[in-house]
Design a protein that fits this description.
With about 400 residues, the chain is of the alpha+beta class. The chain contains 12 helices and 22 strands. The structure holds FE2/S2 (inorganic) cluster and fe (ii) ion.
């Protein structure tokens, strides 16, 4: 089912490539410059987007074993992810029910969490195991003092959580079937090679860059090269978008020997899986996934963006996941080189530009910014941010139920 859809997207890209065309949005769109710089808008986005919608919080391979945990802070909400004994994922508010201290920090493997303040202990399923000095403390109903649980969902080798314990929005509904396609990467069985966190500009300024091939041969001329394609066709599932270059060719990487494949001449059945997932896959509102080769095998960079403390700041965690852990020193060095290259591209080119752009926009001297007909990804992203920021909780459910209906038709 998902292969059929992937093949049909590839055929779309091949026919546009052969005709030297691309798909355009209907018009050039104007976005108020203040939507990047206004602190009130920023606070509203943190509350109504990041603290209300499902977020992709970790690749599954970051927490492969029962007991593996990771503590995060997302827009001021302390989140604890813990792999359960049955292999499922638990997402909890990382706040001790005694007086609110986070029960654990960082990452590790544990069967229980003991709060560092007064020593209350919780099991990895969030239940309160023990109150320190219980006789002195006095009677409490332990069953009502579990760690608060967030909705969580794992699919396609990725983990989502919604930072609203009362959320009625089903995470699978929110994904509009997109996770079925993401499963084509095969992340389920992959491993985490490395990760790092980078500071960046306003989260939307930063995210725009992931939805945009227009800038590639210009901003990245010294890294990707000045002859890189600047066109993309966009495919959407609700707010989630894939962008990929219209081309009838693909490069087959075989060791040092790259070969060009003529996709137009190939049968559907012969299209390799890595060709079918080419391009950039974004998961609204904050994830971008792109495939790379390094260490002689398939890898992918999963970039996870969160708003920072102020409107002009964000942080991005780059997870470099690989089909297999590289084994020889040479493979490790080559994977490391690929990962480091992507740090340079994002930090020194995309985010350095984003920061300058943000500072300039903060002057207030420009009323609007523009997204061309060739920048449909950015157009749609901003429309979705606007729509979801201002939707009520009930409307959110209707919006995604409507997307499901449309997809089924
Ligand atoms: S705040 Fe955790 S034991 Fe007191
Ligand atoms: Fe870029």
């Amino acid at each position: 089912m998902s292969r059929e859809e992937l093949v049909s997207m590839t055929r779309n890209l091949v026919s546009h490539g052969a005709a030297d065309t691309m798909e355009y949005a209907d018009e050039v769109v104007r976005i108020p410059a203040s939507s990047y710089t206004d602190p009130d808008t920023f606070e509203l986005e943190k509350r109504n987007i990041f603290r209300r919608l499902p977020l992709m919080v970790a690749p599954s391979c970051e927490l492969p074993e029962p007991g593996d945990y990771k503590a995060m802070d997302i827009c001021g909400v302390p989140l604890l992810l813990a792999r359960q004994r049955d292999g499922s994922i638990g997402a909890f508010l990382n706040m001790c029910t005694h007086r609110g201290n986070p029960v654990v920090s960082g990452t590790g493997n544990a069967t229980r969490f003991t709060c560092g303040y007064h020593g209350w202990t919780f099991k990895s399923d969030g239940s309160l195991l023990g109150v320190a000095s219980p006789k002195d403390f006095g009677p409490v109903d332990k069953a009502t003092l579990c760690l608060k649980r967030f909705p969580a969902y794992e699919s396609a080798g990725l983990i989502w959580a919604t930072l609203d314990p009362d959320s009625q929005l089903d995470i699978a509904d929110y994904l509009c079937g997109y996770d079925d396609l993401l499963s084509a990467f095969g992340f389920d069985g992959w491993t985490l090679f490395s990760q790092r966190t980078l500071p960046g500009p306003n989260w939307k300024t930063a995210y725009d860059g992931y939805l945009d091939f227009y800038h590639l041969p210009i901003l990245h001329k010294d890294t990707f090269g000045a002859d890189f394609y600047n066109r993309a066709n966009f495919f959407a599932w609700g707010p989630h978008q894939r962008l990929s270059t219209p081309s009838k060719f693909a490069i087959k990487v075989q060791g040092d020997d790259d070969q060009q494949m003529d996709l137009e001449a190939m049968n559907d059945a012969d299209l390799p899986q890595d060709v079918l997932v080419q391009g950039v896959w974004t998961i609204f509102p904050h994830i971008s996934i792109a495939s790379f080769y390094g260490g002689g095998q398939r890898g992918a960079m999963i970039s996870q963006l969160f708003p920072g403390d102020t409107v002009g700041e964000s942080t991005t965690t780059q997870y470099y996941v690989m089909e297999n852990q590289p084994e020889t020193d040479e493979q490790v060095a080559s994977a490391r080189e690929q990962f480091d290259f992507l740090e340079v591209v994002v930090r020194d080119e995309d985010y350095a530009t984003g920061k300058r752009q943000h500072e300039a926009l903060q002057s207030g001297m420009l009323d609007h910014v523009l997204f061309g007909k060739n920048e449909r990804g950015g157009q749609q992203f901003h429309q979705w941010v606007e729509k979801l920021t201002h939707a009520s909780d009930a409307q959110l459910q209707d919006i995604f139920a409507g997307e499901q209906r449309e997809a089924a038709e």
